[in-house]
Amino acid sequence: MGQSTSLAGMMKKHGISVKLFDTTFWRDESELYLQENRLVREKIGGYKKVEGYSRQREIVNITEKFRETVKEYKPNLIAATSTSSEFKSLLRFILPSKKEFNIPLIIGGSHPTADPEKVINSEGVDAVCIGEGEWPLLEFVQKIEKYEDFTNIPSLWIKKENGEIIRNPIRPQYDNLDVLPEPDWDLFDERHRIRPFEGELKRYGFFEMSRGCPYNCSYCLNSRLHKLKTSDGKMFTSYRFHTPQEIIRIIKKYKEKYGFNHIQFIDENMANLPIETLKELVELYKKEISVSFFTQCRPEAFVNNPEKAKLMADMGCRMVGIGVESANMDLCRTILNRPMREGIVEEAVKILKEAGIMVAAYYIIGFPTETKEMIKQTIELHRKLKPDRFSVRFLHPYPGTPIRELLIKMGYFDESFDEKEYQGSYFTDPILDLPSPPHPTKEELKQLRDEFALIASEWK
Asked: pTM of the predicted model, to two decimals?
C-alpha cells in the first residue's frame, strides 16, 4: 500500500475522484514464473506459514482488465508508480489503453526517480515525477482539470507533443510529515490487511512515521537520492518524521475504523527517531494504540543507544528487520559502502533479543569481488545470530545505484538488461554473470542461498 495511500489521500482531500487499479491478487497469463518467488521464500524460511492461508493469485489477462477499467471509469489521467523491475511489464499493461482512449500517463516512484531520462523518453510516457509525489500530482491534476499550462510544475518532467522535454527542478521538501494528508485505505481490497505474522493471521495496519535515510549503501536507491538537490539547494532526502501526537491521532482513527491488531511501520529506520521523540511516542502509543508491530532499523541505532530497543519493546515491537547483507567487513567497506566495525551486527541482535524483540536478518549475496569463502563467512554469522526470520536475496543492480555503475565499469553488467522484461526475482535467480573464479557460479549461488535454511534448521 505504502505511498499510494498518501497519494490517494491527497486527491480525496481536494475532492478529486480516484479509481485504483490493483493487480495484487492477480497474476498475468504471461507471468506464471513469479509464482516461484513465494515458494522459494517459504523454502528458505523467510516467513512462518499459517495453515490454510494462501495468497495464490488468480490468473487473468491484466491488459484486458485494465482496458475494461479505463473504458468504464473514463479517467482524465493515468497515474502509475513503478519500481525498476516492474517498469517494462507496467508499460505493456497500460499502453494499449492509453493509446486507444488517448489519456495522458504520468509515472512516479523509485524507477523514474532513479532514471528519469530513460522513463520520460519511453513510448507513451507523458510525464514523470521525481521524488515525493503528493503535491506535484495534485497540482498536475488541478491544472489538467482547468486546462491550464502544467509544464512548469516542480518535481515533474513533461514531454510536450513535439517531443520537447521540460525538466523542472525538485520542489523543496516539507520539514515534517504532519503536513501530509491522511492515508486513504478505502480504495484497497481488505485482503491487503489480512496477513500472516509469526504463524498467526493478523489484521494489519500500515503506517509511515518517518522518511529519509542518512546512509549511502551502494546497492540502495538512497545513494542516488542523496545526490539530488531541491530548488532551494538542500539535500533531497533529509530525515523527517511525524510528531508523536499526529501519528498517534491517525493510527487511533484508523484502528477504530478498521480494527487492526498488528502494525507494520514502513519506515526505513524507525530507531533513527531522537530519543526524546521516541519516549513521547512510546507513552502515547501504549495509552492509545497498544497493538504489536514490526519495523526495520539499522544495527548502529541500537548499539549507539541500547535504550531504544527497550523503549521499542515496551511500546509493543515484536520484531525488527535488520540488513546484515554480508559478514565480510572489507567487502562492506569497499563494495557495499557500508562501513561498520567488526561485531556491530552481533551486538545489535543481542541487544534486541535481550529486550524481548525478535530479529529478522536480511542478507544479499552475489556482489562483485565476493568469493564463495566470503559468503561462507556470512553463513557462519547467520549461524551465530540465530535470527527468528531471515531472507537471502541475490544482488540486483538497480538504476541509479553506485554498484550498478561499478559493475558496468568492470564489464560485468550490460545496460541492455533494462530493455528486457526480467523473468525472475532477486529471491529466485541471480542475474549477474560474474566470472568464476573468483566468483561463485549462478548454480553455486543458489546452493549457498539454500545453506542459510539448512543452518537455520539446526535451531528451529
From this structure: 0.91
